[in-house]
Amino acid sequence: MAEQHRRPTLMDVAAAAGVSRALVSIVMRGAPGASESTRQKVLEAAEQLGYRPDSRARLLRSSRTKLLGVSFSISHPFHAELVDAAYGGAESRGYDIALSAVTSGRSEASGVQSLLDLGCEALILISPTLKEDELTGYARRVPVVSLLRDDVGQAVDSVSSDDHAGIRLAVEHLAALGHQKIVHVDGGTAVSAAPRRAEFNREMERRGLEPRVIPGGPYEEDGLRACELLRAECPTAVVAFNDRTALGVMEGLRAAGLRVPADVSVVGYDDSQFARLSYVQLTSVSQDAPLLAEAAVDVAVGRLEGEQPPSHVIRTPHLVVRTTTAPAATNP
């Protein structure tokens, strides 16, 4: 029984093809030295046996793992979209991805250490919550790219979206629809919450409008809880910290008998899969997850293959208008 489940080896392929192990190795490495007919014979034998080269072992023997370690939070679906895009970007550069999840019972530091233990040559940390000195410590060992957060010091690379521009787009859109009583349900202590909150205040004041900010957070329950204070403000529009917060806000408004967008318009942030659901169709600020992830991979690989200093890449978001925003209702 054990023999039936044994993983095929180079010697098995050599025996099946009737050639030497060295010749099989040449073919599997794509190196010159084998005729086309021999190459085809070896590949056919490998396919029949189900043989697959152990790429990880080969890389370890060459002192390179070509692994990019990615740390992400399982509680943020937008992180999953970034991870998905990172795989494609890494593959196109000849690298692979190793994942490490941050959970309620697993700290970010533990996740990063596991990636280093795997031999990852560079780290991409999505929305890291580690302190600047901790990030700098890791950056002394391998290149570190902070994705979505840019206040990470000079020793750490960063790739982020322009949160200031994103909030301005949201407020501009609502103001163009005639909204003046606009409220921001913020992200609490979440990464990016502070700059989005500050920019909302600035943009509202710049337009001569009173900025109203209600404490929130990054999850649906935060948006739902914020609605208890939100209703007292009687806004005609809400800019939420992210799409999940926006979903909570929308549920709270509907529970209170208010219609979205007839009574209150709602704008989210991230343009995540939630926003694009057919029964949600949330107007949202898009951070272009694929472009952000690919940029992070490019920065990480660029550091590994060159001597460039840490860089800070900031991409400009754009607004995706769907059905949760409409012109402000006029008073009878």
Q: Quick gist of this model?
A:
This protein is an alpha/beta fold and 332 residues long.
Question: What can you see in these coordinates?
Answer:
There is one protein chain. Helices cover 45% and strands 17% of the residues. It has 332 residues and is α/β, with parallel strands linked by helices. It folds into 3 domains: 10-53, lambda repressor-like DNA-binding domains (434 Repressor (Amino-terminal Domain), Orthogonal Bundle), CATH 1.10.260; 63-161 and 289-315, Response regulator (Rossmann fold, 3-Layer(aba) Sandwich); 163-287, Rossmann fold (3-Layer(aba) Sandwich). The longest helix has 17 residues, at 289-305. The radius of gyration is 26 Å and the shape is elongated.
Low-confidence stretches: none
Q: Specify Rg, calculated over alpha carbons.
A: 26 Å
Return the average pLDDT rounded to an integer.
91
CATH topology assignment of the largest domain:
Rossmann fold
> Which band does the percent of strand residues land in?
15-25%
Note the overall shape. elongated
- Assigned CATH superfamily of the largest domain: Response regulator
Strand tally is: 12
Main-sheet strand order equals 2-1-3-4-5-11
Question: What is the helix/strand order?
Answer: HHHHEHEHEHEEHEHEHEHEHEHEE
Number of helices: 13
For the termini, the CA-CA separation is 81 Å
